[in-house]
Amino acid sequence: MNALTELSLTSLAAGMRAGAFSSRDIVEACLRRIDALDPQLNAFLRVESEAALIEAEACDRELAAGKPRGPLHGLPVAIKDIIDVAGMATTGHSRITIAECAQEDAFVVQRLRSAGAIILGKTALHEFATGGPSFDLPWPPARNPWNPAHHPGGSSSGSGAAVASGMAPAALGTDTAGSVRHPATACGIVGMKPTYGAISRHGVFPLAPSLDQVGPMTRTVADNALLFDACLGHDPRDPTSMAAFEAASPSVGKDIRGLRIAVLEEFNAEADGEILAAFDGALSLLKDLGAEVVPVTCPPVSLYNDCARLLIQAESFAVHKRWLAERALDYGWRARTKLLAGAFIDAGTFLQAQKERRRLTVALREATAGFDAALCVSSFHLPARIDDDDAIDRTYDRQARIAFNLTGDPAIALSSGLSASGLPLGLQIASHPFHDATVYRIAAAYEAACEGLVDSALQPWRRPAATEAL
Length: 470
Fold this sequence. Notes:
Blueprint: H1 3-6, H2 9-17, H3 23-41, E1 44-47, H4 49-64, E2 76-80, H5 107-114, E3 118-123, H6 157-164, E4 170-174, H7 181-187, E5 190-193, E6 214-218, H8 221-231, E7 260-264, H9 265-268, H10 273-288, E8 292-296, H11 301-327, H12 333-340, H13 347-368, E9 373-377, H14 389-395, H15 402-407, E10 411-418, E11 424-430, H16 436-451
Parallel strand pairs: 2-3, 2-4, 7-8, 7-9
Antiparallel strand pairs: 1-3, 4-6, 5-6, 5-10, 9-11, 10-11
Helix pairs in contact: 3-4, 6-7, 11-12, 11-13
């Protein structure tokens, strides 16, 4: 990366305020990075080069006049192409909606603009946020910056690849079954799924409305909290939108001495040994920071996964039912296969799954009662090769993320090191609803401690060397 694309979002903001560089300098650096790397990584579906440069120049004039718009003034952000940006198509990475032009910004994009952010472009995803990496769509799938032969996680695949490779300092994704945290894990960045209802989904194409959530993706925890805070705000157009959320940024930098953290051992049981070894190292580090780390018992993660998958199948089929009847062959085979599965779920089965959801939510609440947060792995396996369908089918959905979509709890994924094969490892920190700031507090303390380690498997890995050779 060049100097500007190495800097964090918070460092870029501080540098602009100090006059070290301009918003135009930042946008130009990102655009050069995109030109150099995106032909190999396929992270972007659309880059708004001219509009971003014009907006950057306007931001520079406003800053010079002492009139910054907000905490993201002049900073570029990439947007997953399932979120509306006025004047741009919201394609969902699908030929079904390839020409569907958005008439207005999604609420979350409005919030970013109000905070001063510049929309850099729209990023790749799995078709309508489901399926997996597919080669039968209008655009190729995004690839992993650490090794482009491997997938970058999904469904917010392009957002993860763009942030990890330095093409954008921050991005938005959506998370229904871990789709922000999966690419965060696979690409070695930070991805947050907020409490259900924290961020409005107005203007976001749905997958499964009772589990969908918008989430920020960045290279540091402080950056993630900054983006999260900018996205908050009650929106009456989203009936799930809530206003009772405290800002997360003030929690970054606080110590975690005395906090009690539950370890969800059942959620880790099926993870590969290399992932578990890094996780154990993270536990030791949190203990050294003064947290009380205690194993707890809860239902197996497979029960959460099965229940959530059934709900997603039923709800996503309802969203796509008309198109599936009229244009089934216009979908890629992965999305079509997953969406059609919902046709076989009757009302009784769906209601039973909702009862099971409640039971599992209560069980997790009881297991973590009296604790400030919970800890578990993210993926059970490393990212497979992107062209190996069998390996993707075996490993892609094996994870401990979807449980927190089912319960609505906030959960953040961040790096726990680098594997022997050079691919990132990851863990999750979760907490109770409305305690998003606690998640950020613990994540930031862990990240800061990792940064003090030298030649350690726990050191954060935010700069993929693989991109330098592309």
